[in-house]
Design a protein that fits this description.
Layout (H helix, E strand, L loop, with lengths): L5 E16 L5 E16 L3 E5 L6 H9 L6 E6 L2 E2 L6 H7 E4 L3 H4 L6 H11 L8 H11 L16 H13 L5 E5 L7 H18 L2 E6 L3 H4 L4 E6 L2 E7 H6 L4 H8 L6 H12 L4
Parallel strand pairs: 3-8, 3-9, 6-7, 7-8
Antiparallel strand pairs: 1-2, 1-4, 4-5, 9-10
Helix pairs in contact: 4-5
The structure holds adenosine-5'-triphosphate (ATP) and magnesium ion.
GO molecular function: ATP binding; ATP hydrolysis activity
InterPro entries: AAA+_ATPase, ABC_transp_ATP-bind, ABC_transporter-like_ATP-bd, ABC_transporter-like_CS, Oligopep_ABC_C, P-loop_NTPase
GO biological process, one term: transmembrane transport
């Protein structure tokens, strides 16, 4: 259930990357990766953010978490305007990010237990003597055996590694999780399991999600609302039902046509849903 209190408010946010161009690289141009984006996310809600490669989805996510400097605009979290220079510590506890490939961000020489213990220790989430118990709790939360703590990242499959990535993000007990294509690198059969885990964690922990993906199919079942991004701007945002049944923008309609339906029985369901009720 969502309450009508926005947890995150993004107001006219711009993130530009300076690039040197022209003769002798003397001219500075800008890649307008995020170019005037406004939207909000209510507590307990899942907002899907979709759009083609390079449209600025990751930059927007990284800007919200403070990994990219904001060029213009304002971001409010739980009613407070974010100042990323001073709020980094408190912010990093409240907003966490899950990346597409957790392997590249896991130190191969650290055991899973150490990976999870580190943020607990640095941010003093629990007393030092309670860390081993908290590590086990996190592993159980994401469906991994507690014996995983003494093993290394390479000993795990892609799906299991993503579970570790999720456990690490949850270690700081965040309220908002930015999920940047967290299942797109996984085997199709594993994708559904991880998506179910996200849903289950949301119910158990009351999490709020910004869920990034290329296509509409990937966010359909998890999103309450969907924002469609194109060339640095959100061109349309609406409930999942509205986006699927009553798309307004031409680009949203293009994305809907690209909605993959290899199964002919499902295809007919989609055709029906576009005419009538959402499945
Ligand atoms: N550090 C950077 N310096 C310069 N330009 C960048 C930087 N990071 C991203 N960009 C540019 O900003 C634009 C948006 O990139 P971004 O990674 O946010 O897109 P995306 O929607 O996440 O794409 P994908 O779906 O492929 O992950 C692209 O044109 C990209 O080349
Ligand atoms: Mg991206």
């Amino acid at each position: 259930m969502t309450t009508k209190k926005p947890l995150l408010v993004v107001q006219n946010v711009k993130t530009y990357y300076p690039i040197k161009t022209g003769f002798m690289n003397l001219k500075t141009d800008y890649v307008k990766a995020v170019d005037g984006v406004s939207f909000d996310i209510f507590e307990g809600e899942t907002v899907g953010l979709v759009g083609e490669s390079g449209c600025g989805k990751s930059t927007l996510g990284r800007t919200i978490i403070g990994l990219e400097p904001i060029t213009d605009g304002h971001i409010y979290f739980d009613g407070q305007q974010m100042d990323y220079r001073t709020d980094r510590v408190s912010l990093s506890k409240q907003i966490q990010i899950v990346f597409q490939d957790p392997y590249s961000s896991l130190n191969p020489r650290q055991t899973i237990g150490d990976v999870l213990a580190e943020p607990l220790r640095v941010h003093r989430i629990v007393a030092a003597r309670d860390i081993p118990q908290e590590v086990e709790r996190l592993l159980q939360l994401v469906g991994l055996p507690t014996t995983a703590k003494s093993r290394y990242p390479h000993e795990f499959s892609g799906g299991q590694r993503q579970r570790v990535g999720i456990a690490r993000a949850l270690a700081l007990r965040p309220r908002l999780l930015i999920c940047d294509e967290p299942v797109s690198a996984l085997d199709v059969s594993i994708q559904a399991q991880i998506m179910n885990l996200f849903k289950q964690l949301q119910q158990e922990l009351g999490l709020t999600y910004l869920f990034i993906a290329h296509g509409l199919g990937a966010v359909k079942y998890i999103s309450d609302r969907i924002a469609v991004m194109y060339a640095g701007k959100i061109v349309e945002m609406g409930t999942t039902e509205d986006i699927f049944l009553r798309p307004q923008h031409a680009y949203t309609k293009t994305l809907l046509r690209a909605y993959p339906n290899p199964d002919p029985t499902k295809r007919s369901i989609i055709q029906r849903t576009q005419k009538g009720a959402l499945e």
